[in-house]
Amino acid sequence: MIACIIFVFNYLPKLSNDSLLEQIKNDGQLVVITRNSPTTYFEDADGPAGLEYELVRMFADELGVSLTLLIPDSFDDLLDQISNNTIHIAAAGLTITKKREKIFRFGPAYQEITEQLIYNVSHKRPRSLSRLDGSLEVVANSSHEERLKRLKDDNKNLNWKANHEIESEELLQMVSDEIIDYTIADSNELLLNQRFLINLRIAFDISEPQQLAWALPQTNDKSLYLEVQKFFKKIKENGELTRLIERNYGHVESFDYVGTKIFMRHIEKRLPTYRTFFEEASDIQNVDWRLIAAMGYQESHWDPDAVSPTGVRGIMMLTLKTAKELNVKNRLDPESSITGGAKYFKQSLDRMDDAITEPDRTWMAMAAYNVGYAHLQDARKITRKLKKNPNLWIDVKQALPLLAQSKWYKQTRFGYARGWEPVRYVENIRSYYDILKWVEESNIVTTPEPVEFLKIPNSI
User: pLDDT by residue (tens digit) across 86-145?
Assistant: First the structure.
């Protein structure tokens, strides 16, 4: 079902003797309020995305109705819409709190987070809430403000500003830009934003682990609530929830400040020199140029002279054998390397089984690009033996490292492989790809490397 995004509230529940669930099915629409955030809902080049969006879209599909998304003007508006019973579900990364449980009806918890104090790395790390030296700002009426109110009993000097206008993500940006000194963020929010706002740091946790869940209006009709419970029970048992969380968070579990900082510098200085080559290769192969560029960065840091100990060379690190098959005459020529690498990746993509769907298809093709198609197939066979799904990256990436263990590679056709390498390879590229998309959407200005960096050696 296609989601309809509405920014002005124009939905009102109808008076009927039918249950709420029956009304929704009769009307043919599920009305969900969410918020714009990497953890909930956002629009990227491929359309709507975000964990909450994927969950509610799946739920609407289960009900056989279309999905209508409402985007509130503020967090206060979001809470009001639930309280006033003008929406069916709030899927907005809401923390279950005692105060909210008195007002809303929460569905099953689907994710665990911790609330954290965030500061800028250029400042001294605070050691406690009672010793904050600077401005602390949080979203008004958020779980973060609820937490601070409770903590103030033990921290009499604790003060903060409650902002009624902006979201948590914007406060993180303000800390990054040194407009404010501190904010509170959920751990999952920081995880997705820290790749872009690389100078953010966690001072300390201010809460024990907390649960996120959908919130529904507190009414006498529990028909929709019971259906939500059934839905989450199903996706927890069949592994779909785990797969969705992995798809959104699995590649960002570890944050490398130095590596990300270098990458951002290379985006600014190196990428402009080669961007046209990536875009031209994208047009030929019908693959997002930013994905090809992310692969090129993982391979060589966009260094056209890169040479590995095993003899692979150039921006896309092609072997001599692969270069000959692709008719690449000079692997150290950036344009030839990028064109050849993109073609080789597209061949890997086209070679994937039809049963492998996106985005798993892309991640598998990347793994094959790195470790070889044959070893990927061996890993998929091991995945089957482990009674997992060989068409899902989340399962195959657990089997790939087993190719380095004699117990397992002796059972395969193509034997030993450093199977942990393609896993790291794919996860790194996924992070680089996300950052490249963010940079482009943020319109960050980049300048090319000096001309000297472009000298092309004659040797391949």
Answer: 999 999 999 999 999 999 999 999 999 999 999 999 999 999 998 899 999 999 999 999
Answer yes or no: do 67 and 129 share one domain: no
Same-domain status, 367 and 438? yes
Q: Is the pTM of this model over 0.85?
A: no
Structure tokens at 11: 């939905």
DSSP string for residues in 338-394 = HHHHHHHHHHHHHHS-TT--TTHHHHHHHHHHHH-HHHHHHHHHHHHHTTS-TT-HH
In this structure, the strands spanning 161-163 and 115-120 are: unpaired
Nearest-angstrom CA–CA distance, 287 and 285? 5
Split into its structural domains, the chain has a count of: 3
Determine, yes or no, domain membership for 57.
yes
* Alpha helices (H) along 38-123: 51-63, 75-83, 98-101
Tell me: do 127 and 235 sit in the same domain: no
Section 367-375 average pLDDT? 93
HSE (CB half, 13 Å, CA atoms) of 227?
Answer: 22
**Cβ neighbours, 10 Å, residue 186:** 23
Cα–Cα distance, 28 to 30 (Å, whole number): 7
Return the C-alpha torsion angle 312, 313, 316, 321, nearest 10: -50
| Residue 460 counted as domain residue | no
Q: Say what the pLDDT of residue 459 is.
A: 39
Task: Note whether residue 182 is domain-resident.
Answer: yes
Which listed residue (54, 227, 299, 335) is catalytic? Answer: 299
358 and 420 belong to one structural domain = yes
Three-class SS state of 34: coil
277 in the same domain as 170: no
8 Å CB contact between 152 and 158 = yes
> Does 299 qualify as catalytic in the annotation?
yes
Task: Determine how β-strand 136-139 pairs with β-strand 210-217.
Answer: unpaired
Region for residue 23 given its phi and psi (left: phi exceeds 0; alpha: psi -120 to 50; beta: otherwise): alpha
Environment class of residue 280 by beta-carbon count within 10 Å: exposed (0-12), middle (13-18) or buried (19+)? middle
Q: Is the peptide bond before 359 cis (omega within 30 degrees of 0)?
A: yes
Residues 162 and 284 both lie in one domain: no
Q: What is the CATH number of the domain that holds 430?
A: 1.10.530.10
- DSSP assignment of 216-272: EE--S--HHHHHHHHHHHHHHHSSHHHHHHHHHHTT-SS--HHHHHHHHHHHHHTHH
One-letter amino acid for residue 7 of the chain: F
Does 57 lie in the same domain as 20?
Answer: yes
Residue 9: domain span: 3-111+211-249
- CATH at residue 187: 3.40.190.10
Query: Is 189 found in the same domain as 94?
Result: no
